[in-house]
Amino acid sequence: MAPPRILLCGDVLGRLNQLFKRVTSVNKSAGPFDALLCVGQFFPDSSDLLEEFTDYIEGRSDIPLPTYFTGDYGAGALKVLSAATRDPANLGFKMEGLRIRLSVVYLSGRHSTSSQQFGTYSQDDVDALRALAEEPGIVDFSLTGHTNEWPSGVTNGAVTSDLPLGVFDSYGSSSTVSELVAEIKPRYHVAATKGVFFAREPYTNVEAVHITRFLGLAPVGNKDKQKFLHAISPTPASIMAASEIGMKTTNTTLFPFSSVEKATHTTDGAPKRSSDTASDSQYWRYDTSQKRQKHGDSDGNKLCFKYLSSGSCERGEKCHFQHNEGARDQYLSGVCFDFLIKGKCERGPDCAFKHGAEEEGNSFPSRRPRSGNANSERSRDCWFCLSSPSLESHLITSIGEHYYCALAKGPLVEDHVLVIPIEHIPTTLLSPPECETELIRFQNSLKMYFKNQGKEAVFFEWVFKRGSHANLQAIPILPSRVSAIQDIFNLAAQKLGFKFMVIKNDDSSEGRKMLQMKFDRKCSLFYVELPGGTILYHLVDENEKFPTQFGREVLAGLLNKADRADWRNCKLSKEEEEKTVGNFKNRFKEYNPNP
Predict the structure, then answer these.
(1) Residues 536, 486: contact at Cβ < 8 Å?
(2) 40-56 pLDDT, tens digit each
(3) What is the SS3 string spanning 356-422?
(4) Where is this chain compositionally biased, Basic and acidic residues type (predicted)?
(5) Within 380-519, where are the H helices?
């Protein structure tokens, strides 16, 4: 199932004509999208826009996309929502026909001790969200919106040159929100209210392997024309492998909320309950089974996510899930997380991790003939095997005897090419001499083609020791950027705490031979071949967290295309891909080693 494609919006303020005009345009040019999620104030500031707003509510104007909002306050909110809630079927988000599989939490309105139905949240609401931190699993989205929106301290450690004016103001910030996101640790935190757009660098979380991305959105129709609409296509954490969840980008910063004061009262004066009391009561209160059993009686056969991933769980004996040391040992040895938790893995034979102890010791799948063996089983659903039904063959541009070329899905730049072995092997460095010769021929052809386009070629490969089907990526770079490539890779390596080893050789084929001799099959490896023949490489330790998209992320930064660092944000329709492939084939015709 493809990841959901979602549009995020800041404070709408009742300006639905302007919002939906923009949504229609974006959906036509970059869609289709599955849903629109709005944070902050959705209803108008005054009654002036009520007629426009009511036209959509009562069906006189068309809504172009399933739209969901959290801001239940503003002019007309009480009347509209009170009428809607008279029908019990209208309570909550309406998700019919939309299966996004994302875990979403939200806090909206201003804090109040009254029983006002709309526009406020209570301490019970805060405690309900805090209880989520005690549950297994990862929250994908946290949405916040109203006067207490942005978490206090979110700009700590951020690149100051990227900070818009006004973000340092205390208005629109809350230590309550800071503490909530610090406990819940969402993968994405989307907020409004500040009146500006701000996409913070990802930051690490305390006692969690995944990172959090904070996104502040401007209001619709703001006079400074700041961004109020943002597109995203996140893979739900529930179906991600542990290695994917734990990956960090090269610009990841430290946790920004370490200085948040752990006071006994919130900034708005509301007393905060004892952590133990709140978590225990809420743990029972929000359980779907209505009543929690004693430890081991309910969910006793399920593994604790926190213990499995970190080796500890703050609930100790009170935890309702197993703290299984044997399962954690398997997890650390490379057994698939989904396989341990669920007993099955949706990726099947294409999963990069082991599905049980029987695979122990197999650092790489064997390079045996394809017929009638495990390699054939693994390649059945592989994206890159020519015999696989999952192969998107329309992206292929040239096929040789041992290798083929294809345009990248979700390309970083135009002419982003993959050089792929026909045999189902985990790295091109395992190719025998006759296959290596053909690989070099493909590389040289691409170099000449890029040179004719006024560009230079950069090749890189991520070799995961439990990987599946290899692919060597080729990216065209303008000559003016070539001198900075090695420096930016070294800087990115420094941020991750390692230093590249260097192989200098004018002949790229000889450089690859030297790299093959240094390659240890028991380790993962990243390497990049620079214009001129220099190769940078890094052998990745067993317990080292290394971003699978490292090469692409670094080059995206070099090319000022940070928004294209994730290939899933760059996907084209099949029709667009077919047209792109046709154009590439025409340009590449005279350089193609396999016409």
Answers:
(1) yes
(2) 888 888 888 888 888 98
(3) CHHHCCCCCCCCCCCCCCHHHHHHCCCCCCCCCCCCCHHHEEEECCCEEEEECCCCCCCCCEEEEEC
(4) 264-275
(5) 433-452, 479-496, 508-518
